Write the structure tokens for this entry.
Amino acid sequence: MSRRNTKTQEAVLTLLREEQYAMSHEGITAKLEEPIDRVTIYRILNRFVEDGLVHRIVADDGRQYFASCAKNCAHDLAAHNHLHFRCTSCDRVECLQGPLGVELPAGYRADNYNIAVSGSCKECREE
Amino acid sequence: MSRRNTKTQEAVLTLLREEQYAMSHEGITAKLEEPIDRVTIYRILNRFVEDGLVHRIVADDGRQYFASCAKNCAHDLAAHNHLHFRCTSCDRVECLQGPLGVELPAGYRADNYNIAVSGSCKECREE
DNA sequence: ATTTTATTGCAACACTGTTGCATTATTTGA
DNA sequence: TCAAATAATGCAACAGTGTTGCAATAAAAT
């Protein structure tokens, strides 16, 4: 199951790398110049997550957001252990600051961290 | 919009209070003796959340889970600032330990904390 | 007992994300 | 360079979660 290079994948990855916010499928669709099928976008994103190029955040609106991984964070669980903030006004999701001291009780194993706080971001509050 | 007492609401609240895990709509339906309409359950749960009787967790499967609030946590945002763990084997969601030191950058306001970690719980790992 | 209106149940919908399958396009290797 | 193998795409259809509209029901208030 080796990967192939395609324009569509390139377009999505470039978009995610340029954007400072985590993007939902909806946001990605909106920003793409050439329209790409909804299903294809989801499949591309899932592949990126599998390959560790992108990380997946489930915000507290229950939707998936995707953000380009910082370099070398591929498959590094700890690197995904940071805070995500969703602004309920502008609906942007951003990754904030470094790792949090989230500790599980003995005997538990974490496979995925999903730390999502929602509220109003600085920009929206200043308006 | 004052509230009225009904058997259905009583049944759902009792269920949530007896259960040590946070429950999804699905789980609630499964445990109810008298069947209650899906829509009604959602409406009851949303009312409970509004009234601060129950808190809502969005796990990293994107689904809503509901847990009876500890006494006096009603509308107290800080009290909801704790870790939620979803076991991907037994699919149970539990509320773990005390508040976390989640700090937002200056200018941000948090309206909702949703800290969800998934993995394997102690019980499932011991099997 | 009667009125008021919160609650319920049904049908229908909106939305997110996935699966199946035929078609297209990238790789690979002769 | 061309042909075969197969990854990626697009369309249709589906599954699941959660919501809204509306008529029927039932709790509370008079």
